[in-house]
């Protein structure tokens, strides 16, 4: 189709790469290290083409490959017993974990970060964070039913905090409300350590029948690969214009936006459209497009499948016709999905697209070659083993050590409510301390935020703010449902990463339990500074060790999560902030317990130590 | 600790074949969000919910229509602006204006669509505080003679859910005066105006009383445990009202 | 490619909440010269090829029927910009 | 009273969901002449008295710093309209 635009580039084909081994490639600008680039050359047995370089550079980034955390994250998979796994239908590794709710129902949930996009453009950064996590949930075959948003901002009186916070909250509301997903909880912490690195974590929950679970894999030779949803634009590839080296003519690449603008309406339509596809069993495999866009979707679908895949990149519908192949492969344009459809379902698939007025294009098909082949106007520009892109990225054993200052930090005790004051002793002092506490930005009412979120849509919200956990009914007949709570305490974790992470888990676990649910599964978002700093790496290693140990003790598995590193300004990292989400189950949500006193005269007990 | 569940199950209204015979259409546009809630509300009232799609060209013999809330077409351009041109909307407008006076209820985005379609006067602009606002909202029933309000007492206060960003009702003074004079203000906000709406107007009706639009959401207040204050079911009156109308009880 | 610009503003008698917020915020940033602000919409419609009278008429009609709501808004401008 | 008009559009490379929805809806109403639509903002700033160079400079600065979000938007026009 777009052979016209195809001609505009003088392609760096695989054939060309084979005969021009010495062409300089901008691997460093794309974030690859020398050893990583050397690995790419070794894997391919030749230099990568510009398009291949684009794919490896995004897929081997920290964000997509978990290269610094992988060795530690293994513990989540290792420290589990058979008993812990009994309700786990899909574990770590897929887009989101799936837990058995009973009666043929399953629930999937996951938490992710959208921290740095929010710093740059708070509204859109936070909004697209919701959009991204919701697509993860859809791609499991589920109907998304709720979202949550643990947030961390800088000091409440810093001038930039208002910009970030107002924008982020409006963006989360703007996107989530438009999707018809009740927001059932979150957190809000102000602390100057997050001034330059606010944390916007987004959690989504979805439900499905067991038979509807979908996995991201491309199987069955001859099945067709389709891209649907929004058109592909230059979003999120700001740095990739250096890939202009892949076109050897003089036409300057157009400006590439550094931020993405979300289109919640497009995503809402995409949700309904996907659910209709699932209902008709019209897709064999499906994958959302998030960071790393088509690079990620094609390589993951292909490497999780049993064969290979061949696609024609000029078939991708573009918003910006000047995009180069590498840019198309890297684009992070929102609101897109990729699916594998068997030939007999093509007509039915297209009918669903037409009904919802969703654009789509057929890109290629599943093969049995074991290779991922991407062509540009018939010329091969990518020819790789998809596993090497999606799964066999670099893994680092980064050095870590307990910081020298940790002892001093722990020895620095805090004595009173007002800094440097003594412990309150008189009733008046106690009262003043109490008032100071409840009025503090981190303890006060969160209404300003929660009033901007729709908690009623769907008609199944049994608990939301100000309760300790959000509770959603899944089945109207039986009252089957779930509870979710998220918690984290950066200051505790800074003082003691091992126990701090455990405290976060324990708090979320308690919040779910006190709502009346039985805790079942954990998802976590590990927000840390640079893994190249041994102090930070120690915090990360300790937090993961603590969390995985505590999961063993509590008997609930981690089913998925996300790691967000490099949250630091200069050499100053944020406090280590592992946000932990716990999911629990209700046989009947009618039995859920709201927090707060319900009636006069009830007795008050304090339980525990 | 009492053993009583704190919230009830999805208790259906007593089965009454006359009620079940009433077919209430619920329209879905791309971007509609509260259609499933509206369907549930219809079901809980005992009537039969009929799902309608914006691109349909027939009204499927429904006896009444609900245009539910949401962000049809993302609220892009203006809330309701694009939906108003849907094929089904032409049918709905004709049927509402016909002698049969099809009862039509527009909730939130549905209200916005009805004003864009000129079935109801005035329009909605951004809330005066410019933010999305979700809260439990007390309304006074000002007119209990419409197809959708006759189950309430005149002057009754009800609590349902308010949630919107473009909820500020505006119209010129002449229109507002006429609405007041003819008793077409159906609901007024109590306990503080949440969005700057002129004269605290939360909902209005047409002169015939068959078309009603309001910003707050009765369909989110029909089942104990899932509505305002964990117990509120004040929204059920809307659906009972239209059944009264259809069955000729009022 | 030529574009047709359509400008739509809220009718003068309607209070504009966004404009009001802006006029309140401007002085805080030192912009003290403005006594009122109104926020409206600007649409750019791209035409492939020449803008004929017929196309301009289409734009005018679209402006009145869809791009604006005559109950609250005025179309203040419809013009061709070439570039 | 003189007014200064400020026009702000999303940068061309940024997705405009509203424009996209509008261009999809126009043909359904028979408006088939337009291949793309972008929706932006038009601000009218009222000045009490004469529009001096200094006031125009204020408007330009306000346009860049407050009326537009330079990360995603461009100020495409700042001009005085008298009426
Ligand atoms: N960013 C947010 N988004 C949604 N809900 C939030 C957010 N922040 C706080 N909440 C909700 O507000 C309520 C009070 O929060 P918080 O004071 O953190 O509770 P607690 O201290 O009891 O854990 C909870 O229901 C929580 O889920």
Automatic annotation (TrEMBL), chain B:
GO terms for molecular function: ATP binding; glutaminase activity; phosphoribosylformylglycinamidine synthase activity. CDD domains: GATase1_FGAR_AT (cd01740). Its EC number is 6.3.5.3, 3.5.1.2. The active site is at residues 108, 217, 219. GO terms for cellular component: cytoplasm. Part of the FGAM synthase complex composed of 1 PurL, 1 PurQ and 2 PurS subunits. HAMAP family: PurQ. Part of the phosphoribosylformylglycinamidine synthase complex involved in the purines biosynthetic pathway. Catalyzes the ATP-dependent conversion of formylglycinamide ribonucleotide (FGAR) and glutamine to yield formylglycinamidine ribonucleotide (FGAM) and glutamate. The FGAM synthase complex is composed of three subunits. PurQ produces an ammonia molecule by converting glutamine to glutamate. PurL transfers the ammonia molecule to FGAR to form FGAM in an ATP-dependent manner. This is Phosphoribosylformylglycinamidine synthase subunit PurQ.
Automatic annotation (TrEMBL), chains C, D:
GO terms for molecular function: ATP binding; phosphoribosylformylglycinamidine synthase activity. GO terms for cellular component: cytoplasm. The keyword Metal-binding does not apply. GO terms for biological process: 'de novo' IMP biosynthetic process. Keywords: ATP-binding, Cytoplasm, Ligase, Nucleotide-binding, Purine biosynthesis. It holds the Pfam family PurS. It is an enzyme of class 6 (ligase). SUPFAM superfamilies: PurS-like. Its EC number is 6.3.5.3. Belongs to the PurS family. NCBIfam families: phosphoribosylformylglycinamidine synthase subunit PurS (TIGR00302), PRK05974.1 (NF004630). Part of the FGAM synthase complex composed of 1 PurL, 1 PurQ and 2 PurS subunits. This is Phosphoribosylformylglycinamidine synthase subunit PurS. It comes from Arthrobacter psychrochitiniphilus. The lineage of its organism: Bacteria, Bacillati, Actinomycetota, Actinomycetes, Micrococcales.
